[in-house]
UniProtKB/TrEMBL annotation:
Pfam families, alphabetized: PAP_NTPase
Record domain Poly(A) polymerase nucleotidyltransferase: where: 12-65
Highest taxon of source: Eukaryota
Protein name: Poly(A) polymerase nucleotidyltransferase domain-containing protein
Organism, as annotated: Zea mays (Maize)
Length: 117
């Protein structure tokens, strides 16, 4: 993709407000804000990001097996549509010790069996 420059040699419609980099004060303020957000645990750690991706990947696999997946914020809740015993409840469809779901998001599966009425 080529970058189009206008007649003044700048990218975009108008020229930039400033070509100078951030000031030392700005860099210090940015570092303070980032430290505060990190201390408040508002940044996702790398291991948390990896686990989240693994869990969401597993849920995408579950979607192939007769389920409906509903998104809520960054979490998914899924409902099994398989015809199983009515009222069966499980903490996690794949919550074994070998599976990262056990350590990750708590997933509730409500089985929708065939009822009498």
């Amino acid at each position: 993709m080529s970058k189009v420059k206008n007649n003044n040699g700048y990218h975009g419609v108008t020229e930039p407000i400033s070509l100078s980099g951030p000031t030392e004060k700005y860099l210090m303020q940015t570092a303070e804000v980032e430290k505060y957000l990190s201390d408040a645990r508002l940044y996702e750690r790398q291991d948390e990001a990896i686990l989240r991706e693994e869990v969401l990947g597993k849920l995408d696999q579950v979607e192939q097996f007769s389920t409906e997946i509903y998104y809520f914020a960054s979490f998914k809740i899924f409902f099994s549509l398989a015809a199983v015993d009515e009222g069966t409840t499980s903490r996690s469809m794949m919550g074994t010790s070998e599976n990262p779901l056990r350590a990750g998001l708590e997933i509730m599966v409500w089985s929708l069996g065939h009822g009498d009425g």
